[in-house]
Amino acid sequence: MNRAARAIEQREQGRIRLRLGMLLVLLIATVAGTVYWISTSTSKNSESNLTVRLAFTRSSVIIENGDTDLWSGVTIRLNGEYTYTVDRLPRGAGSVPWTAFHNAAGEPFNAQRTTAHQLTLEVEEGPGGKPGHWKW
Description:
The chain is α+β, with helices and mostly antiparallel strands. The protein has a single domain (35-135), classed as Immunoglobulin-like (Sandwich), CATH 2.60.40. Helix content is 24%, strand content 38%. The chain is built from one helix and eight strands; from the N terminus they run H-E-E-E-E-E-E-E-E. It has one helix at residues 3-34, and strands at 35-41, 52-57, 60-65, 71-78, 82-89, 92-97, 119-125, 132-135. Strands 1-2-3-6 form a four-stranded antiparallel β-sheet. It has a four-stranded antiparallel β-sheet with strand order 5-4-7-8, with no helix packed on it. The protein is elongated and about 80 Å long. Keywords: Membrane, Transmembrane, Transmembrane helix. The chain crosses the membrane at residues 20-39.
């Protein structure tokens, strides 16, 4: 292989490495921006008898039931105004889309216009069959 051909090949390999590096940086930035953990509460104190881990994504809120028991009669209140109710929340993480939260007028929560700054979780039957409460 002559010198000119080798120089062209090396230049092409450099461009390929640069493109792959840029794609890797873009991928990492996308994944890092997709989900971020906001709050973790693993203590059983006087204010909360539920073990909860909470995360927000661009499209939903992720709530993790860290207790050994299923939660029944679950009401999730966002910013004191928007509510989502579900019959049961099993152990582990569950995702609720932002648009599933509605205010008294029936309007969905709009994550593009409003920021989540408060979340309360009320459970009719939680650990040990007792009612539960958790606040972020």
